[in-house]
Write a sequence for this structure.
Protein backbone atom coordinates (compact mmCIF):
# COMPACT_ATOMS: atom_id res chain seq x y z
CA UNK A 1 0.00 0.00 0.00
CA UNK A 2 1.32 3.41 -0.94
CA UNK A 3 -0.14 6.88 -0.59
CA UNK A 4 1.80 9.50 -2.54
CA UNK A 5 0.94 13.11 -1.80
CA UNK A 6 1.52 16.27 -3.75
CA UNK A 7 4.29 18.72 -2.91
CA UNK A 8 4.47 21.60 -0.50
CA UNK A 9 2.31 24.66 -1.11
CA UNK A 10 2.59 28.33 -0.14
CA UNK A 11 -0.56 30.43 -0.18
CA UNK A 12 -1.65 33.89 0.82
CA UNK A 13 -4.40 34.32 3.39
CA UNK A 14 -7.82 34.06 1.76
CA UNK A 15 -6.61 31.78 -1.03
CA UNK A 16 -7.44 28.12 -1.58
CA UNK A 17 -5.29 25.01 -1.80
CA UNK A 18 -5.89 21.50 -3.13
CA UNK A 19 -3.75 18.59 -1.97
CA UNK A 20 -3.72 15.23 -3.72
CA UNK A 21 -3.14 11.69 -2.47
CA UNK A 22 -2.55 8.96 -5.05
CA UNK A 23 -3.21 5.46 -3.76
CA UNK A 24 -1.80 2.16 -4.97
CA UNK A 25 -1.43 -1.41 -3.79
CA UNK A 26 -5.05 -1.99 -2.85
CA UNK A 27 -8.57 -1.58 -4.21
CA UNK A 28 -9.05 2.18 -4.01
CA UNK A 29 -12.84 2.04 -3.91
CA UNK A 30 -13.00 -0.45 -1.06
CA UNK A 31 -11.56 1.66 1.76
CA UNK A 32 -12.27 5.11 3.13
CA UNK A 33 -9.51 7.70 3.07
CA UNK A 34 -9.09 9.93 6.10
CA UNK A 35 -7.52 13.36 6.09
CA UNK A 36 -5.56 14.52 9.12
CA UNK A 37 -3.49 17.62 9.69
CA UNK A 38 -0.78 18.58 12.13
CA UNK A 39 -0.02 22.22 12.83
CA UNK A 40 3.42 23.21 14.15
CA UNK A 41 3.79 22.08 17.75
CA UNK A 42 0.33 20.49 17.76
CA UNK A 43 -1.04 16.96 17.66
CA UNK A 44 -2.89 15.30 14.82
CA UNK A 45 -6.27 16.78 14.00
CA UNK A 46 -8.79 14.64 12.14
CA UNK A 47 -10.49 16.57 9.34
CA UNK A 48 -12.82 13.90 7.97
CA UNK A 49 -13.05 11.08 5.49
CA UNK A 50 -14.28 10.11 2.05
CA UNK A 51 -15.62 6.85 0.66
CA UNK A 52 -14.10 6.73 -2.82
CA UNK A 53 -16.70 4.24 -4.02
CA UNK A 54 -19.64 6.63 -3.83
CA UNK A 55 -18.02 9.93 -2.87
CA UNK A 56 -19.74 9.96 0.49
CA UNK A 57 -18.04 12.27 2.96
CA UNK A 58 -17.93 13.01 6.66
CA UNK A 59 -16.39 16.23 7.92
CA UNK A 60 -15.26 17.21 11.37
CA UNK A 61 -17.52 20.05 12.43
CA UNK A 62 -14.66 22.52 12.50
CA UNK A 63 -14.00 22.04 8.78
CA UNK A 64 -17.51 21.67 7.37
CA UNK A 65 -17.65 25.13 5.84
CA UNK A 66 -14.19 25.34 4.25
CA UNK A 67 -13.11 21.82 3.30
CA UNK A 68 -14.13 19.58 0.41
CA UNK A 69 -13.02 15.99 -0.13
CA UNK A 70 -13.19 14.42 -3.57
CA UNK A 71 -11.94 11.20 -5.14
CA UNK A 72 -11.13 10.28 -8.72
CA UNK A 73 -11.54 6.55 -9.14
CA UNK A 74 -10.00 6.62 -12.63
CA UNK A 75 -6.66 7.65 -11.14
CA UNK A 76 -7.10 6.31 -7.59
CA UNK A 77 -6.49 9.78 -6.25
CA UNK A 78 -8.14 11.55 -3.34
CA UNK A 79 -8.13 15.30 -2.88
CA UNK A 80 -8.72 17.76 -0.09
CA UNK A 81 -9.46 21.38 -0.89
CA UNK A 82 -9.35 24.05 1.78
CA UNK A 83 -10.70 27.54 1.06
CA UNK A 84 -10.45 30.94 2.76
CA UNK A 85 -7.06 30.00 4.15
CA UNK A 86 -5.80 31.63 7.32
CA UNK A 87 -2.46 31.50 9.06
CA UNK A 88 -3.84 28.91 11.49
CA UNK A 89 -4.23 26.52 8.55
CA UNK A 90 -0.45 26.26 8.24
CA UNK A 91 0.12 22.56 8.82
CA UNK A 92 1.21 19.27 7.35
CA UNK A 93 -1.77 17.57 5.72
CA UNK A 94 -1.85 13.75 5.64
CA UNK A 95 -4.03 11.19 3.95
CA UNK A 96 -4.49 7.84 5.63
CA UNK A 97 -6.12 4.51 4.82
CA UNK A 98 -6.82 1.58 7.11
CA UNK A 99 -6.18 -1.55 5.08
CA UNK A 100 -6.56 -4.98 6.70
CA UNK A 101 -6.39 -3.39 10.13
CA UNK A 102 -3.18 -1.45 9.46
CA UNK A 103 -3.02 2.33 9.07
CA UNK A 104 -1.03 3.54 6.06
CA UNK A 105 -0.10 7.21 5.86
CA UNK A 106 1.03 9.47 3.12
CA UNK A 107 4.26 11.38 3.82
CA UNK A 108 2.35 14.60 4.27
CA UNK A 109 2.03 17.86 2.40
CA UNK A 110 3.18 21.08 4.06
CA UNK A 111 0.79 23.94 3.44
CA UNK A 112 2.08 27.31 4.54
CA UNK A 113 -0.29 30.27 4.71
CA UNK A 114 1.57 33.53 4.87
CA UNK A 115 1.47 36.97 3.34
Amino acid sequence: VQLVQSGAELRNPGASVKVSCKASGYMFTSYDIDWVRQAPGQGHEWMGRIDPEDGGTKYAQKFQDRVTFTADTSTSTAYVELTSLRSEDTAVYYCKVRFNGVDYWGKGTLVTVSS
Q: What stands out?
A: The mean pLDDT is 97. The longest strand covers residues 91-99.
